[in-house]
Specification:
This protein is an alpha+beta fold and 102 residues long. It is 37% helix and 37% strand. It contains 2 helices and 4 strands, in the order E-E-E-H-E-H. It has a 4-stranded mixed sheet, with helices on one face. Strand 1 and strand 2 form a beta hairpin.
């Protein structure tokens, strides 16, 4: 089953260099339904923490939800460039391992 995970994280920026409150959210769309959740993050000075929290919590929900245990592919929609780079590098390493596994 194909599952789409839409994620986002954000921070409030009152002053530069000050730790501020952040939040994360995800929306999962699948053949068995839609699931959404959001929450707060500890204060931070950049938005990467909330962005990565949204992705991690969304993937954890997919893995632990009995209705979604037949997931075969996850499409992750995010605007977090470091997260996209990280996921691409994992995919390259995984494909490289399969090719050289023998």
């Amino acid at each position: 089953m194909l599952v789409t995970l839409n994620t986002d994280g954000s921070l409030d920026y009152p002053e530069q260099g000050v730790l501020v409150k952040g939040g994360w959210a995800y929306w999962i769309s699948s053949d068995v339904g839609r699931f959404k959740l959001w929450g707060k993050c500890p204060p931070s000075d950049n938005s990467m923490g909330p962005e990565l929290a949204a992705i991690a919590k969304g993937v954890a929900r997919i893995r632990n939800c009995p209705k979604l245990n037949i997931t075969t592919k996850i499409i992750v929609n995010t605007d977090c460039v470091p997260a996209i780079s990280w996921m691409k590098s994992i995919n390259k390493r995984r494909n490289s391992y399969k090719k050289h596994k023998g």
